[in-house]
Structures are given as C-alpha cells and as structure tokens.
Design brief:
Blueprint: H1 10-15, E1 22-34, E2 41-42, E3 59-63, E4 76-84, E5 90-96, E6 103-104, E7 111-120, E8 130-134, E9 140-144, E10 155-157, E11 162-174, E12 181-190, E13 193-203, E14 209-220, E15 225-231, E16 238-250
Antiparallel strand pairs: 1-16, 2-15, 3-6, 3-8, 4-5, 4-7, 8-9, 10-15, 11-14, 11-16, 12-13, 12-15
Length: 256
C-alpha cells in the first residue's frame, strides 16, 4: 500500500529498488540463422549451442573492426562484462578495446551473461562484432553484434545465495517464405542435469510470437543455468527471438 492508500505495483517497486533484497533480471536474445539440419541452437547472437565453462578463466576480447578502439573516434571505445566468479558470486570487469588486436582481462569468470558498450565515438555503438572468449580462445562466452551495443543472449545463471523466480517467458520468429515452424525450449541446468521446464511451438502460418506470464512464478535454485534453445526448425535461415524475466531474492540473510 502506498501514499494515500494507493496500491503499488510490486514489479515496479522492485525495478525502482524499493523492495529490500529483491532485484529484476531481464534476459533477451536472438539467433538469426537457424537451419533445418541444425542440432538444437541456443537463442544467442553467436549461433550454435551455448557451452557453459567448467572452470573460471580470464577473458580475451576482440572486435572484427579496427574502429572499435579505445584510441579511436568512431566505434566502441570501452565495454563492461558481467557474470559470475568461481564461487558463483557476481563479478564485472571493464575493458578498453584495441580493434582487431585482442585485449585480456585480469578477473576470472565462470559465467558471462552480459556485456555492453560503455563509451563510443561518433557512431555511438560498436562498428564490428565484439567476441568475448576464454583465455585460450577455445570457448566463446558472448558476442556483441555489430551496431547493437550489447549482447543478445537468452542465457543466465542464478548467483550463489540467491533464489530466482521466473515471471515471464516469450518468443517470436520471422521467416517470409516458406512457412516455418519451430519449438522453443526453456532449459534449467542444475548440478549438471538439464531439465526442460517450458515447451512452446510457434509457426508462421499461425502465431509467430507468444508471451507467458507466471501468476505463481517458477522457483529457481542458486547456481542454476537458464537458457532457451530452438529445435525442429522446418525451413532454413529462420530467425528466432526470446526473452525471460526473473526476480532475484537475496537469501544470504533470509531470517534476519
């Protein structure tokens, strides 16, 4: 109940930071080129199936455009990477880009779930694709598509000492011709066990989008990986989008 007995919206108050120990996570992404002969692909701009690291590592970051350079005047100058460390605690690191020459970090990330441009030149975004790899380039953890300024990845992991509550899940697709159908799966990966928690089919001859709200949000335990895959795509070069929202609740002082 708010001022003058007005009813306050809980989610808005969480977004405003006015609900103690509660915060909102909104994840969104796209995969613009999924083919019929593909295995399941994760909804992230890199394409293919997302692979979670088995150990924490420093990051190596590079753009495919020379204008994404900290000493330049047009593209992205700096970016921030956010994720979790080896203890599953929140971590972030700032990087000054060096165009097509890789830059390396100092902090070790077990998970990367977001990166975004924090300063840019005259174009106001990254000119090229920015790739975020582990230290030996054996695993891509995230990419920022050219001109997007932020990662597009429907991938997240619940931090240690937090519990997540899934409040919404949505998806859409585009393909002009021929008609196309896909299945979207939301997967929870807990203790290296994968569980499909939601299954949605969409197609271009019926509904090309959906959104599902959870009146009773689905609980998600700490250290659980959440991601969305597309499978059984019926025509090549299909583009798929997905979003989900989670309320995080700090459990570290639950009974104080």
């Amino acid at each position: 109940m708010g001022l003058n007995n007005n009813t306050l919206d809980f989610h808005t108050e969480v977004s405003k930071g006015l609900v103690p120990k509660h915060s909102l996570v909104h994840k969104f992404g796209h995969n613009l080129d999924i083919n019929t002969d593909s295995d399941p692909e994760t909804i992230w701009s890199t394409g293919g199936l997302y692979v979670f690291p088995s150990s924490a590592d420093t990051l190596k970051i590079i753009s495919n455009d020379v204008d994404d350079n900290g000493t330049g005047t047009t593209g992205a100058l700096t970016i921030k990477v956010q994720g979790l460390d080896s203890n599953y605690d929140a971590i972030e690191e700032d990087f000054t880009l060096n165009g097509q020459t890789a830059v390396t970090g100092n902090k070790e990330f077990l998970r990367v779930h977001r990166a975004f441009v924090t300063s840019a030149g005259s174009s106001e975004y990254n000119e090229g694709v920015i790739t975020i790899n582990n230290s030996d380039d054996s695993l891509t953890l995230a990419t920022i598509p050219a001109e997007y300024g932020q990662t597009q990845m429907t991938v997240y992991t619940i931090p240690r000492n937090y519990k997540g509550y899934l409040t919404s899940f949505s998806g859409s697709m585009y393909k002009a011709t021929p008609s196309t159908a896909i299945i979207l799966e939301m997967i929870f990966r807990e203790n290296s066990v994968k569980r499909v928690k939601q299954n949605i089919a969409i197609d271009t001859t019926g509904s090309t989008s959906f959104i599902k709200y959870f009146d009773c949000p689905l609980p998600i335990e700490e250290k659980t990986d959440i991601y969305v895959n597309a499978k059984e795509v019926s025509s090549n070069n299909s583009g798929v989008f997905s979003n989900f929202s989670i309320i995080l609740v700090d459990q570290s002082a639950k009974y104080q």
